[in-house]
Amino acid sequence: MLSSLRVPPGQDGKRLDAAVHTLLEASRKQARDLITIGCVAVNGVLAEATTRLREGDLLGWYPEHHGLSLALGIPVVYADDDAIVLHKPPRLAVHGGPLVDRSVADSLEEVLPGAGLAQRLDREASGLLLVGRDAPALALLGKAMEAGEITREYLAIVAGVPEFEQRTIDLPLRVTDEPHGDRPKTVVDPQGQRAVSHVTVEMTRKDSALVRVRLETGRTHQIRAHLAAIGHPLLGDPRYGDAGKNAAAKATFGVSRTMLHGARLTFPKPGTAMLVTAEAMHEPDFVRLFPKLSAPRLSAPTEGTRD
After folding, report:
1. pLDDT digits (tens, 9 = 90+) for 231-255
2. For the whole prediction, is pTM greater than 0.70?
3. Is residue 300 a part of any domain in this protein?
4. In CATH, what number is assigned to the domain containing residue 212?
5. How open is the CA angle 45-258-166, to the nearest 5 degrees?
6. CA 138 to CA 131: how far, in whole Å?
7. DSSP sequence for 65-108
8. Which residues pair with 304 in a beta bridge?
């Protein structure tokens, strides 16, 4: 479960790593390691060890999963006997490859042999990632995914300000290897597979917007391809985005990756009638563009029953 604590007067002005060492009764090394891999948030936003705290700031962490998080080197948001929800940091590949030094799959194989990924997440993207602990659990999660029983919501920052508040993008998609050889690209094609994304505008700036996307289907690069197709590609996306707008966002806000974040995940607990909902902490690069995201929004994974 998520734990949270208001920074007391005695910790005002202290560095985050020092406060975690004191307040969580963790060793100094453990405190630094937990912060480094992304297990501690300040006011809902993942923070660095050198962050200076103010009295009243809200710290958030998942103490019961610290051991597994440290072993994997990836924050664990939820875990039971069958399923795990990870918070993948940006730029960490999900699967191994020729140019991949370390991947989520590698960490799972080392620490939890037999565990497997129940969904995909682009290397540059951050956020929630669902894992089955063993083959039977993974099979059940796979069936739930195919049946549309797993709800995935993402936050994305797009170029330009949409003229709509809500929109359903229903455009078939096809994966092609052109023009990048073995690097797949997804294109809108009437002969492609059905793909549906539900988009809601959350906040806007002069030249960009924060949108929430709920996937009805899960095609390769679906969000990136769909938003590009309606004229609002993700900021920082080198494949589907606008090079000029990406350069401006990098110069102004330090945007250096595709701005996509798995924010919320609801799935059936394997073998039961229970539904689990997990919500991710915010990434700092999202908050640089939309500071209101820094307001405390931490919530613990919750369980409920299916209708």
Report:
1. 999 999 999 999 999 999 999 999 9
2. yes
3. yes
4. 3.30.2350.10
5. 80
6. 7
7. GHHHHHHHTS-EEEE-SSEEEEEEPTT-BSS--TT-S-BHHHHH
8. 275
Residue with the two structure tokens 């089955």: 132
Q: How far is CA 246 from CA 90, 159, 253, 259, 282, in A?
A: 17, 8, 10, 10, 21
Q: Name the most confidently modeled range: 15-29, 71-85, 179-193.
A: 71-85
Query: Catalytic one among 82, 122, 237, 242?
Result: 122
Q: Report the candidate in 47, 83, 74, 57 with the shortest Cα–Cα distance to residue 4.
A: 57
Q: Is 122 a catalytic residue?
A: yes
* Whole-number pLDDT of residue 270: 87
- In this predicted model, what pLDDT tens digit does every residue of 255-272 receive, in sequence order? 999 999 999 999 999 888
- The verdict on residue 52 lying in a domain is no
Sign of the dihedral through C-alpha 141, 145, 147, 149: positive
Asked if 99 contacts 118 with a C-beta cutoff of 8 angstroms, the reply is no
Q: Which domain holds residue 144?
A: 62-305
18 inside domain = no
Q: What is the largest CA-CA distance in the chain?
A: 63
Kindly state whether residue 46 falls inside one of the protein's structural domains: no
Which residue type occupies 284?
A: P
- Reply yes or no on whether the pLDDT at 188 is more than 90: yes
